[in-house]
Amino acid sequence: MTSRERQGGHIKAWEASGLSQAAYCRDHGLNSKTFGNWLRTYRDVQKHNQPISLIPAKITPVASVSGYLKLRCSGGHTLELSTNVSPQWLGELLKCLD
User: Fold this and answer.
1) Model-level pTM?
2) What is the pLDDT of residues 79-91, one digit of tens each?
3) First-to-last C-alpha distance (Å) of the chain
4) d(Cα 14, Cα 79) in Å, to the nearest integer?
5) Residues 39, 21: contact at Cβ < 8 Å?
6) What does the alpha-carbon distance between residue 28 and residue 47 come to, in Å, rounded to a whole number?
7) Cα 28 from Cα 8, distance rounded (Å)
8) What distance lies between CA 34 and its chain's CA centroid?
């Protein structure tokens, strides 16, 4: 068993135990700061392994004389871009904003 597998086993056992991190570490002879680092790394890996989800978009054609593309987000933010922006670049930008 690799150390990553052992760490993951401890994290899963802790989650199932219902104990606080400190209590679990005490019971298993683990350093609580080290366990916290394992947990942060584990969660980062889990977050990056999530499948990409699509964001629903409503496209409303509007005659524009400004030469700009406006994207309005549900949170009230507006992103204004030149109409010369490549679709690939815009796609990459939207992935980063997800």
Assistant:
1) 0.49
2) 888 888 888 888 8
3) 35
4) 43
5) yes
6) 27
7) 14
8) 23
